[in-house]
Amino acid sequence: MHAYRSHTCNDLRASDVGSTVRLSGWVHRVRDHGGLLFIDLRDHYGMTQVVADPDSPAFKSAELVRAEWVIRVDGEVKARTDDTINTNLPTGAVEIFISQIEVLSSAKELPLPVFGELDYPEETRLKYRFIDLRRDTIHRNIMKRSQIISSVRRRMTEAGFFEFQTPILTASSPEGARDFLVPSRIHPGKFYALPQAPQQFKQLIMMSGFDRYFQIAPCFRDEDARADRSPGEFYQLDIEMSFVTQEDVFSSVEPVLRDLFVEFADGKRVTETFPRIPYAESMAKYGSDKPDLRNPIVMEDVTGHFAGSGFKIFAGQIEADEKIRVWAIPAKTGGSRAFCDRMNGWAQKQGQPGLGYIFFRDGEGAGPIAKNIGEERTAAIREQLGLEDGDAVFFVCGNPATFASFAGAARARAGEELELVDEDQFAFCWIVDYPMFDWNEEEKRVDFSHNPFSMPQGGLEALEGKDPLDVLAYQYDIVCNGVELSSGAIRNHKPEIMERAFAIAGYDRQILEDKFGGMLRALQYGAPPHGGIAPGIDRIVMLLCGEENLREVTMFPMNQQAEDLLMGAPSDVSAAQLRELHIRLNLPKG
User: Fold this and answer.
1) 29-38, 175-184, 434-443, 455-464 — most confident range
2) pLDDT in tens, 515-529
3) Which residues, other chains included, contact 93 with Cβ-Cβ below 8 Å and sequence gap of 6+?
4) Residue 403 burial (C-beta neighbours within 10 Å; 0-12, 13-18, 19+)
5) What angle do CA 343, 346, 351 make, to 5 degrees?
6) Distance CA 162, CA 157 (A)
7) C-alpha distances in angstroms, 153 versus 142, 146, 159, 211?
8) How far apart are CA 15 and CA 226, in angstroms?
9) Residue 162's CB: how many other CB atoms inside 10 A?
10) Those residues with Cβ within 8 angstroms of residue 269's Cβ, 6 or more apart along the chain or in another chain
11) pTM > 0.90
12) How many CB atoms lie within 10 A of CB 318?
């Protein structure tokens, strides 16, 4: 018999009754039932109940074991009585009566329990992550992650893509976030950067004559943590294709993601054909370019109903500035003063003056706004939005450029409060037609809004003949349940377009040569039309596991301060190491 096990803790069934077996694993819990000791023995695969009675030569040893000790047991498989069968366990029809037990490793008092999965502070969970990972929920999440990545690789290969690896040590480039820099020992004073994404490399792969690339790529960004973004590093399904239009990218990527979600959705519905929503439309209808389409609320412009009305707060703004709009947020079933007042109070906590509303009862509108604009305008709003008695509508007034995000948050809040969100689905969409540029208010200049390597719609002619803020790009995002899974674009493959686009954004030829010289040179030697996308693996897994925080689906994450509490990173280095790198520290005072 093998030194440690003849079976795993998930193998044994009723057909094994009478067999002598050997199992090894962790003591999940110990129960003393009137002289009989019951031990739930756990390994990676599952759980088996093992039993020691006072007549067993192993009984005295069994009395000593505690939670999370690692033990090996030998014994006979016996059938449980009908009233003790555990239908929640695959092994629940049998138990092992121990004839021999060996302690392979004892455990100190635990800093957090594995059994019961009690909620513990994040600091404790991350410092003792090796224990936290033994807990059933997160263990299953990590295994699901592995299965998802395996499925992705298989699907991409079957779709005709080839997996290539790109460098980890590369040059720093201004791609939107801070780089992690790595000092070079043999080139004093110079630094490598960890890639924020393999963007330039995957485009260079296309220019090198390869056709359909993918990689489960690590990406590194020195930015603050969020629930849906890990600090430091994350993984994405990096994809690039040659000789493709935007539609070709969609038709290649959409089935991969749709079928992946169907495979792991546990019965939830998955969007069959992803709708394409222009960026401007998404902002107007949902107040976000990451709309949660499980929420049925769609905002509408109702400015005309308030222009010249008796509601002077809105009417005065509309008359004074043509950019002022009034957006309506319809709320089916929200037609009570109590709910409307709660929404108004919520808006004030967001730093807003309030959230005007009308609610409908007895065939008419109620509330201060309805009284001010009159029955005819109130009825017109009701008809436009398709509202009935028992419904409500909220209003936001101002320049959409400044209030859209608040309106989107109000839409989300109303949908959640009224339980309108359909939780039993994964609702996908494409967001398309992003602006090529936007206005950087802080620096008072035009800047890239998305990916600087994107092809502008209309090409060089659009860049030279249009207001930069009116130029759209072949840029697109995939969104699922309000989570941005991916950004992508058809790339600019002509050097003259690249030069003009960067010039508009304030980068002169020398900066272009310094920061993107490799890319610029490659474009000058025959570049195919190409495009790609990069869905986030961590976010995909988070959605499919039903989690709201990436730390629940990442094996060894950092905390919110970008610290690895388990390994102690970032850490101090010795003076000798700094001398080798020709670096002197200049630490902040205090």
Assistant:
1) 455-464
2) 888 888 999 999 999
3) 13, 14, 79, 80, 85
4) middle
5) 130
6) 6
7) 17, 11, 10, 17
8) 50
9) 13
10) 424, 425, 426
11) yes
12) 19
